[in-house]
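4.2 Preliminary Data

To establish feasibility before requesting continued support, the project team ran the inverse folding procedure on a target of 833 residues. The structure was first converted into the token representation described in Section 3, and no sequence information of any kind was made available to the design step. The complete token record follows.
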């Protein structure tokens, strides 16, 4: 296939796109051998009605008579352009701007390539016809080329020269890979062969490459490929159009980057993660190595300081995120989480202090790197690090500079102004997310501090149960909640176990938890039964709610809806009683490892209102275990909390209690839970019979002396003779009061734990009162003396009657005497007035 002769016509840019032209092939006699889809659209004739017909049959008689002259003109100058009037299928006529190019097929026969567009769509249709049509091909910005079946160039228009590779004469006979070695010629050649084989055109194919006219910059192109056939349908070659769409491609790329930034940056409320998200998003589309450095105060959640810290020569920032096109980020001189010390004169610090961006199209390869504390053996010059162009953008939000983002390229073209604007837009979006994360960090840290100060710092000494606990705060997306637990020693060696959960998250939830927990502790000290504790607590919450005229405060959660589980265990009787206000029942594990869940009536949450609370009682064997928890431990998945997930982790476990606690939380709760997790494990103990002494006493004043004798003998058996005086005094006063002011039956009991407990039971519900007797009073000093000679005393009510009790420490730290030396100092004693 040959090319036309040289065409020297020069004109202005055509006002339409050559890629939209109809394509027609004629043989040497002017018979139509190929009819494109756009030709059918233009004239309405399908290919089947046109192929094999003379082209003159498609023209008006006047223009059909011009065909021989047009052919001679093409032979003389290599092409012809002008306006012809063709017949439309509907009987009308269509003015078409036509460009005719003479070619030769593989056998050397003359053929004609005709390109045409609707003249009515062209703004320049009134201009001189031959000039317009000549410009359509010769002056169009769209590159046009014809290749033969061997994919060698046969003809091309002048617009193709803008891409490099020479003139049409220089291209003739060469292949694409010889003309443009910087593009993926193998892929483009495969596309053209596909078009040759199938006849199906490929339209709007976009690709990236480096052309000879711009070898230093990667460009984007769009190409259309179509096959040229002879009168027998055999392929003669391929025609393609090519347009530089770099600006459009970069605009799409920028929009795509901003979309990804909006989608991926800010999904976490963690400052470090948000900074890393920024670095991940911009690599590799905008930069090939990115470092994000923040002020130390930002990482702590505090307000950024007015100026960067450091001495006169260096400024310290914290590396919060970095990313590179290379695995392991070899360009980085510091690791994420480490301190980066920058020279005070460096562009990053200038941007940090001025709040303005900086761009360098080309870095001096011999210049020193900006970091001031490079590790030993690390490259210290930009050339050694492979960095050749850079931008620095300050991270600013709400008028505050939080840090800087530094962008580098290693191999790509230098950063331009558009790149800097894109970086500023992306960093601006990330800055708001980083500042939100900073503010949340401050609030979360305050809430955690408040909650940890409100939770038990240590488990109080008691002999009823062995305890292990675990508290895991919710992740940063949810915020710290108001879950809590408590272990409260009660009179008579008993213990109260409490787990609760306040509705809501944040500082307000933690503060509400503190108020509710304080109320529970106060009610526990009054020695109420579990259902009574919850009833009083519900009343307190309800009254607090009624004081708020518009309901819960808009600033945070109230105690309404708080759940609470309250359990009392007695190591003497092994009796366990429990009641619930909207909280799940505990899991019980028998000494043989069998797990069960008590059939506990779940009452309404506090302040909600509803039926009264109910308590149940259990007899627990020594060594039984109770697992108290909040919903966060089991809330993994859409199905909601499922207590059966506890069973396999608790059943048959032989771990120590603290190890089991960690194993259960690790097995059920995610590393970053969406709700607070509390787990309280207790293993019951039983006081040995020899550590409890009990006597039934008649309501006779003479029995008081006998009671003192029995107590003295029991203390001697326990080796506590030094406590005999104060204990006999306590027994004498309590038994005397029971005989004088109460009713039978009367029972005296001594319990030896970490303290010596003295209890007197009577059948009266009258509450004793401590008062200060006057000098002339004959009585009224008994409880006052007890309060002076014991560590604490009080009263609690039983099913029938009440119990007055008093405790004395055995050792200075209140530990069990069985584990202390017998020479431990005794509790202070005194003499009667």
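Position-by-position output of the design step:
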């Amino acid at each position: 296939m040959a090319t036309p002769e040289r065409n020297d016509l020069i004109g202005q840019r055509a006002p339409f796109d050559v890629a939209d032209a109809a394509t027609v092939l004629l043989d040497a006699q002017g018979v139509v051998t190929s009819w494109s889809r756009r030709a059918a659209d233009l004239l309405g004739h399908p290919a089947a009605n046109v192929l094999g017909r003379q082209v003159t049959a498609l023209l008006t008689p006047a223009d059909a008579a011009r065909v021989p002259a047009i052919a001679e003109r093409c032979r003389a100058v290599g092409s012809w352009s002008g306006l012809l009037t063709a017949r439309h299928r509907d009987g009308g006529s269509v003015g078409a701007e036509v460009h005719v190019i003479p070619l030769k097929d593989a056998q050397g026969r003359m053929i004609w390539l005709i390109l045409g567009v609707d003249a009515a769509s062209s703004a320049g249709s009134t201009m001189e016809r031959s000039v317009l049509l000549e410009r359509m091909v010769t002056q169009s910005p769209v590159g046009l080329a014809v290749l033969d079946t061997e994919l060698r160039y046969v003809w091309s228009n002048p617009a193709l020269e803008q891409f490099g590779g020479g003139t049409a004469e220089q291209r003739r006979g060469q292949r694409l890979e010889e003309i443009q070695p910087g593009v993926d010629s193998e892929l483009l050649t495969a596309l053209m062969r596909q078009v040759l084989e199938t006849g199906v055109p490929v339209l709007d194919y976009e690709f990236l490459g480096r052309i000879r006219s711009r070898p230093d910059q990667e460009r984007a192109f769009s190409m259309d490929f179509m096959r040229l056939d002879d009168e027998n349908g055999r392929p003669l070659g391929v025609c393609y159009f090519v347009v530089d769409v770099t600006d459009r491609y970069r605009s799409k790329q920028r929009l795509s980057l901003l979309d990804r930034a909006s989608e991926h940056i800010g999904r976490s409320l963690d400052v470090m993660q948000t900074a890393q998200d920024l670095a991940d998003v911009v690599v590799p589309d905008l930069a090939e190595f990115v470092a994000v450095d923040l002020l130390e105060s930002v990482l702590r959640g505090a307000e950024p300081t007015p100026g960067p810290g450091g001495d006169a020569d260096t400024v310290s920032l914290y590396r919060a995120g970095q990313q590179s096109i290379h695995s392991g980020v070899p360009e980085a001189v510091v690791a994420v989480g480490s301190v980066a010390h920058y020279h005070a004169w460096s562009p990053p610090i200038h941007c940090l202090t001025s709040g303005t961006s900086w761009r360098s199209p080309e870095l001096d390869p011999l210049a020193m790197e900006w970091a001031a504390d490079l590790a030993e053996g690390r490259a210290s010059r930009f050339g050694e690090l492979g960095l050749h162009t850079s931008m620095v953008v300050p991270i600013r939000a709400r008028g505050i500079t939080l840090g800087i983002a530094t962008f580098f390229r290693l191999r790509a073209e230098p950063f331009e102004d558009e790149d800097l604007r894109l970086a500023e837009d992306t960093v601006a979006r990330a800055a708001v997310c980083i500042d939100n994360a900073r503010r949340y960090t401050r609030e979360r840290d305050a809430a955690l501090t408040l909650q940890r100060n409100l939770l038990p710092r240590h488990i109080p000494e008691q002999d009823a149960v062995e305890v292990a606990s675990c508290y895991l705060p919710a992740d940063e997306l949810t915020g710290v909640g108001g879950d809590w637990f408590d272990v409260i020693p009660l009179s008579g060696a008993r213990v109260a176990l409490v787990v609760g959960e306040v509705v809501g998250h944040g500082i307000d939830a933690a503060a509400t938890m503190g108020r509710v927990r304080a109320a529970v502790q106060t009610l526990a000290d009054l020695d109420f039964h579990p259902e009574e504790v919850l009833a009083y607590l519900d009343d307190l919450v309800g009254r607090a709610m009624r004081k708020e005229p518009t309901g819960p405060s808009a600033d945070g959660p109230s105690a309404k809806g708080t759940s609470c589980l309250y359990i009392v265990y007695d190591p003497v009787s092994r009796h366990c009683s429990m009641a619930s206000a909207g909280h799940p029942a505990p899991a019980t594990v028998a000494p043989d490892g069998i797990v069960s869940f008590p059939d506990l009536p779940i009452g309404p949450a506090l302040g909600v209102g509803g039926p009264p609370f109910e308590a149940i009682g259990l007899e627990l064997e020594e060594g039984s275990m109770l697992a108290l928890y909040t919903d966060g431990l089991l809330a993994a998945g859409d199905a909601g909390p499922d207590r059966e997930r506890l069973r396999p982790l608790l059943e048959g476990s032989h771990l120590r209690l603290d190890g089991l606690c960690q194993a259960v939380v690790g097995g059920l709760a995610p590393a970053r839970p969406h709700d607070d997790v509390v787990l309280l494990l207790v293993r019951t103990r039983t006081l040995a019979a020899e550590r409890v002494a009990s006597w039934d006493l008649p309501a006779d004043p003479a029995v008081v002396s006998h009671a003192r004798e029995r107590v003295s003998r029991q203390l001697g058996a326990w080796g506590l003779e030094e406590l005999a005086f104060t204990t006999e005094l306590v027994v004498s006063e309590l038994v005397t009061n029971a005989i004088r002011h109460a009713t039978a039956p009367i029972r005296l009991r001594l319990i030896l734990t970490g303290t010596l407990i003295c209890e007197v039971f009577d059948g009266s519900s009258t509450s004793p009162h401590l008062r200060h007797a006057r000098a002339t009073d004959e009585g009224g000093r008994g409880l006052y003396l007890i309060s002076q000679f014991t560590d604490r005393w009080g009263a609690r009510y039983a099913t029938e009657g009440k119990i007055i009790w008093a405790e004395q420490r055995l050792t200075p730290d209140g530990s069990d005497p069985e584990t202390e030396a017998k020479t431990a100092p005794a509790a202070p004693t005194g003499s009667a007035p």
